[in-house]
Specification:
about 475 residues, alpha+beta
């Protein structure tokens, strides 16, 4: 491009020389025709003047050409600066059809391609950030110098405001397991694994740290708290079932061996031993039934045969059908009233709920000599309750009594024949109905179990029955 501009300036200079030569030729001929004697004398003078005239003509033209080229080059420089500063929307005006115009068009095309490339890169970066933010795992990228390059929303939620781009990971996350795993991955240049239990209170993370081509490390933290909890629950469940079955089996085995080894057993002793065996067999049968019931209500395939029922009918039916449980216990089972509000329930499932709660009250609250069953409207729900007036439950046990096999007093529970599964079954049935359950207790004043069911509206039919408008909420 510079060579072409130089060539054009040289061509202009040659034209000016030609112009001067022609002018000199014309002047010289004119002088020879007028006065040949004075030709040499005036030749020098005329040559000087003709040169001055040519110079005066050439200077403005050269100045204009240089100014035009300089202005366009300044625009090119300004354009280049805007591109360098990141303004990819900058463009050069062109349209003269010369070599500078071709250069300006090429620069505009380059800027346009750069803009498209950066737009594609930004779009890809945004898509990657969105994808990483949508992950359930926490992700953090660290530079070779140990500074945070990027972290997704989950990681920011765990680490809080301490973690941000440009800040040292050591000062952002005070977790030795994560820092050690990142360090080992960077030093070894290979993927390293670890576990973190102190990054967030009560949560456990599996860490996978992989080196980056730039020398940094990317760490992915997978929350395995629920998995570990489920695994722990499974181990505890198996251990509890084994323990609950081993105790009566051991007792049955011991009494049977005693009867077998005695060739002439005493009839009274035999009857006593057989009664103990029957008691333990009944306990095992009850445990098996409760295990099957719990497995059923916890199953995703658990179905409820829902139908509209008035709360008052549920309470009266519970008292009538379960009154036999308290006949021999000396405990009075009574109703404390219930509204006629409609709820959608599975009658058999609700009988099991009231049966477990009332049986629980008889076993552990019969010293109060009275059990109340009732219901009341609480906003959009109907709250049912079973209240005893026994010794009550200490506050440290309230939050755990709905867990499988949890017992406040293990010795007393086994003596009463409890399996430790009744309240867990009740909880799952209530949740399946879209309700909630809780317990209130005060030592020496008794315990109240309360569960809520969503209230449903009803429209009358011509035959006198009702059409429920069902809206069951399941927040489990």
């Amino acid at each position: 491009m510079t060579r072409k501009v130089f060539t054009k300036l040289m061509a202009l200079f040659v034209l000016l020389l030609l112009f001067q030569t022609v002018a000199m030729e014309l002047i010289l001929r004119h002088m020879l025709q007028r006065s040949p004697g004075e030709t040499l004398h005036r030749l020098g003078s005329e040559t000087l003047w003709s040169g001055l005239i040519a110079l005066l003509v050439a200077l403005p033209i050269a100045a204009w050409a240089a100014s035009s080229i300089a202005t366009r080059l300044q625009r090119v420089v300004a354009f280049a600066r805007r591109i360098a500063q990141g303004d990819l929307s900058a463009r050069l005006e062109h349209g003269r059809g010369d070599e500078l115009t071709a250069m300006e068009a090429a620069l505009n095309q380059t800027a346009e391609r750069l803009g498209q490339s950066f737009a594609e890169i930004e779009s890809s970066r945004h898509e990657l950030a969105t994808m990483l933010d949508s992950m359930q795992e926490a992700v953090v990228a660290v530079t070779a110098e140990g500074q945070v390059r990027w972290s997704n929303i989950v990681m920011k939620r765990i680490a809080g405001t301490e973690i941000r781009a440009g800040r040292s990971l050591v000062h952002s996350v005070r977790d030795p397991e994560l820092l050690d795993c990142v360090k080992r991955a960077q030093e070894a240049g290979e993927v390293r694994y670890g576990r973190s239990s102190s990054l967030a209170p009560g949560r456990l993370f599996e860490i996978s740290a992989a080196p980056l081509p730039t020398g940094g490390v990317i760490a992915v933290l997978h929350d395995v708290t629920r998995i570990e909890s489920a695994e722990r629950s499974r181990r505890d469940f198996i251990a509890n079932v084994s323990h609950e079955l081993r105790t009566p089996l051991t007792s049955i085995q011991g009494y049977v061996e005693t009867l077998v080894e005695d060739p002439h057993p005493d009839p009274a002793t035999t009857i006593e031993f057989l009664q103990v065996i029957l008691k333990n067999a009944t306990r095992m049968n009850r445990l098996t039934e409760d295990l099957l019931a719990l497995a059923s209500v916890e199953s995703p395939d658990y179905k409820l045969a829902m139908q509209p029922t008035r709360a008052s009918e549920m309470v009266s039916d519970a008292i009538d059908s379960l009154g036999g449980l308290v006949v021999d216990s000396g405990v009075e089972l009574e109703s404390s009233g219930a509204p006629d509000a409609l709820v959608m329930v599975d009658p058999d499932a609700m009988n099991q709920v009231f049966g477990n709660l009332i049986e629980n009250a008889v076993k552990y609250g019969k010293s109060g000599k009275r059990i109340e069953v009732g219901a009341r409207v609480q906003g959009a729900d109907v709250e049912f309750y079973v209240r005893d007036f026994g010794p009550g439950i200490a506050s440290e046990h309230i939050d755990r009594i709905f867990e499988r096999f949890y017992r406040v007093d293990k010795a007393r529970s086994r003596e009463a024949g409890g399996t430790g599964l009744g309240l867990a079954i009740v909880k799952h049935i209530v949740l399946a109905h879209g309700g909630h359950i809780r317990a209130d207790s005060e030592l020496g004043a008794g315990t109240t179990f309360l569960f809520t069911l969503p209230q449903v509206a009803a429209t009358p039919r011509e035959d006198g029955h009702i059409n429920p408008v069902v809206e069951v909420r399941n927040d489990s």
